[in-house]
Queue: 3 jobs
Job 1
Amino acid sequence: MTEPRLDHLVYAGPDIDRLVERFTELSGVEPVLGGKHVGRGTRNYLLSFGGAAYLELIGPDDPEAEDKPATFGINTLTEPRLAAWVVRPADIEETVARSRQEGYDPGDIGPLSRRTPEGTLLEWRLTPNRGDRFGGLAPALIDWLDAPHPTTNPLPELSLVSLRGYHPDPPSVRKALEALRVELDVSEGPAGLEAVLDTPNGRIILR
């Protein structure tokens, strides 16, 4: 089952231009430029899953830069990786407080922003990319404030068939997910997320 409050998936790579090129070849769908994250050194491209969920491709704004940004572990990547998933709770403060009471700390809520290609500044709040979140299996939490959601703009579309996770210790992951009140199928295996997408080129898997 896919979490109904899914906001977006994060597919990260060490070279954003190559990542977009490879994804377009694989899927037959070309992502559109979202913009640059202010002060983060990253740039993203977007595709819609339909409704209010989407796929974000992210990497260094300058792929040739020697120092890669640490966001979503980009500075450690040699190949693309499905690095994270992001959930939009009804009340982000209440979700963080309850989760801490139940034993999982998703981190403090902090501000982020992105400048669109048209020059518009979008501002929102997100729990930080701290630790590895069980290899990305524990989601980040987002609050878009007054910013228009990315899916309100025309985006190329493909279908998310399924999202699941793997981890050497599934019970520990399930405990964190329960504290956050989110759903993700988790099986035993090397830590990581797996998304199955339907595309014009057929069904593909992102890991």
Job 2
Amino acid sequence: MQVTRELFNDVMVPNYNPSEVIPVRGQGSRVWDQNDKEYIDFAGGIAVNCLGHCHPALVSALKEQGEKIWHLSNVMTNEPALRLAKKMTDATFADKVYFANSGAEANEAALKLARRFALDVYGDDKTQIIAFNKGFHGRTFFTVTVGGQAAYSDGFGPKPAAIDHCDYNDLAAFEKLISDKTCAVMMEPLQGEGGIISPNNEFMQGVRALCDKHNALLIFDEVQTGVGRTGALYAYQDLDVTPDILTTAKALGGGFPIGAMITTTAIAQHLKVGTHGSTYGGNPLACAVAEAAFDTVNTADVLAGVKQREQLFRDGLNAINAKFDVFSEVRGKGLLLGAVLNHKFEGRARDFLVASTKHGLMNLVAGTNVVRFTPSLVIPIEDINEGLARFEQAVADVVNG
């Protein structure tokens, strides 16, 4: 069978419009397509491939577990899931872990737990969920409604109720919304899809304090920021704010589908037997790969390396900007970075992505105005330099029309 981009149009539901490029193999931070053209990967599968492609530790874990046991169902537990959960609780504020298959599922579990907790402890009135405009929390109907982008949630009929939004970093607006009827506040500790927006310190401290005042649970969606992406194992650890519930996915499996919700014993006890579940959640194959990814990332060397690489990206992007004057700023943290287009190139982020692909570079956008970079956390320095050289050629193409 000949596999071409045209086949996509014949056999796939049209909710995606993928590039003409079909990658067939990857090694480290380089990828080759069907024609054996090489690309440098600054996209990382949207902050997923935290150790690049075919990292030996992950390949080895997959092969080893693949010859032991793949799936059991949650009628029985399994060793990889228990080992991974223990490592996650040892390394974070949490005592308990719930495994799912994706970030959306982890967020769905977090939201259901928050509602269940509030009803059990405080009664029927405490149902409001507050989230933030431009936030993104997944594509299930509950999570997409909590996400602050109407374009993703409109057009599917009546939405889940008691969900309100205000602007990120606007503490005064948040204070007006929150009350004793609020059961949970869901936020990203650095907004990803919404444009790579960092929180300011006063906002973070204020949200935590107001949640405490009103007995509302603070849920951190660390699907994109988690597992080393910002230079800490989890972003909350650099912010001096601890959430009540945290969700993690994407980089957790280094490319293998897995998600998790983590929380304290006191909160976790409200998801008693039968209240929530997942057929594949905690699958031994996924947990074995995730354990290898978690162990590899959660080291002083790798986390310090993220901050070193961030500086190389910032310096490189600033040098390109000094030549071409296309960005108003480079924002974000660690290796979750966004180059914000200035007024002359407003709304043209996709043009930079298309030009990059032509020059053998994979990157991303975050909205129409931000070019996003989420490469491997261990991307070799020479690949950063070569990728930035290719990006400079792409920028030149866009600038010169």
Job 3
Amino acid sequence: MLKKSLLAAAASLALVAAGTTAFAADKGAKTVVLVHGAFADGTGWRGVYDILKKDGYNVSIVQNTTTSLAADVAATRQAIAKSEGPVVLVGHSYGGVVISEAGTDEKVQSVVYIAAFAPDKGESVSTLIANPPAGAPVPPILPPVDGFLFLDKAKFAASFAADVDAETAAFMADSQVPWGVEALTGAVTEPAWKTKPSYYLVAAQDLMIPPAAQAMMAKRAGATVVEVPGSHAIYVSNPKAVADLIEKAAQPAN
């Protein structure tokens, strides 16, 4: 008798859980996972985080090491697993490669690219930047040392964060995270944007990833696109525009 009661209780809990999940899906995502890109860490998301939290979202920030695509995808998948689904997965810059690979997780409702690489199957950062168009700005990336890359500190603000206040830009330059050469060559197997709704914010004055390249990748992904004036660090300089697009991506699927 006790066994039957326990089974009945378990079944009831399962039904409640299923109903809760379905309700959450109907209401859209209330959880956002943010993935930073190269030369940066998760602290740059603070402005976006504050807006999303104020608007009632659960937010996780992945402190990916940018040492290799495999390691960064693993860290992102851990964050997704710990989150209450459905999840909006957001990536800036190289973080776009990470979310393209990790975003196929069944808990991910949509993927959002913020001035980011959005590779197709078999593509990596290395292949996407292999043949820059004539006249495209050249990011001031220093030669690799022990397998890692840095931006020239003296040119960091102008190239990466031209619209960020000088004090913050200087801090970002001095707190750079080394970008592993191995991360540049990590290729995507099945990009999430092929199966998940995708959104893309083009930074119109970006000197790291040319806006034309951003627009091309966004169009190829069939993404909902917004273009905003700003530098590559648009997520720092204009967190409101970034948060607005993320909240749009969190709405229930039609």
